[in-house]
Amino acid sequence: MTTLTSATTPTERDIVEFRRLHQALGDSIESAVHGKRAIIDLVLVATFAGGHVLLEDVPGTGKTTLARSVARALGGEHRRVQFTPDLLPSDVTGTSVFDPRDGEVRFRPGPVFANVVLADEINRAAAKTQSALLEVMEEHTVTVGGETHEVPAPFLVIATQNPVDLDGTYRLPEAQLDRFLVKTSLGYPDAEHEIEVLRPGSTAGRIDDVHQVATPHQVAAVSASLATLHVADPILRYVREIGVAVRNDERVRLGASTRGLRALVRCLQVYAAARGRHYVIPADVHRLAEPVLAHRTVLTRDAVLTGHTQSSVVAEVLETVAPPQPDQA
């Protein structure tokens, strides 16, 4: 699939090759991140869908390890930014520097000029620095001193954040949350895998054991091809009905926009191909609706006070909206 272009519709053979690639990437990443294959697969779906990933969890659950493992398996250049309260926007995007040797002013690229950028603990920085990522995440460009600079392609931001109730954290604004294609959490491993992690000699956390499986060119070509994978009209109507139901829920102040629903469709294409299919089924929508739509949903104050969460609202909507029947899809 390395020679595919955006105008090429994936064939059956292409789907088989992508499934193998997806499996190989997951196996490589799982060598360092044990017992979290479902989350790994979700991150890879977002990667090939051309989006960015937000990982939220308490410290010590493997967020940074997962992000670094993904970067290593995908190949290309990767950078890490540790967000702190005193981090400046120019520390992220880059800045113009005067060179006294020839009197010229030159642009010095920041760490966002890489194929995979790890934004570690993004919600520990002030809002002004958080917003510095907005343009580059959406437009894949950085504007400094009136000049626009393009970041490498493909471009993936994997951001980690701690829960907002921890000390020293700042809530991400809705505009920035919407730039993330997927938001998910790792959680603690189950008993079997946690014991495996604790066992002396375990490979858990060993980034050096993660081998490169793909190249940036390959990722870009596959991503462009999968964007043309067929999605039937009944599935599209099903996605819209879910979006409308979330927006109209009395517990919701702001639901997912049309851009959010398009993001869900994009993920559905990759998810179906990763399972060896050239078509999307309703079960795919059930799997991806929560990680794609929940963080784009803003609840009312009363809903929050009564214990409702964004994920629970989306889950309840999925139970109420009837999926299309096989003869329709």
UniProtKB/TrEMBL annotation:
Pfam families: AAA_3, AAA_lid_2. InterPro entries: ATPase_AAA-3, CbbQ/NirQ/NorQ/GpvN, ChlI/MoxR_AAA_lid, P-loop_NTPase. Residues 52-182 form the ATPase AAA-3 domain. One of its GO terms (molecular function) is ATP binding. Residues 246-316 form the ChlI/MoxR AAA lid domain. This is ATPase. It comes from Nocardioides currus. The lineage of its organism: Bacteria, Bacillati, Actinomycetota, Actinomycetes, Propionibacteriales.
